[in-house]
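Quick note —
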Amino acid sequence: NAHFQLPLDGHPPTHPPNSLTMPHVLISTQNVMEAGPTVCGDADSDAELMAKIGAVLGTQMGNSYSEYVSESPPRIILDKLEESGYLIVSQSGPGQTLAWTLRKPL
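Predicted structure written out below.
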């Protein structure tokens, strides 16, 4: 487990303070690539980046985890991530899911 120092106000951070040093983003969509929705990150993703690309944190019925989702199609999310300095490093299509891994150079 990583050890994090509490901020001066004594409250735990909402996400790891060095999350920007982890420069990868994984997005995915199922079935219809042209329409969305697009899964943009898990609950530990950079909240500021998720807001910038229009993704909202939520939990789908039946899931035990939260994820950031945007109603925009993947193309729009990929364009917004590129504007923020992220580049596609891989893409795959397992089953009816399409997934992209992006990286921001440090």
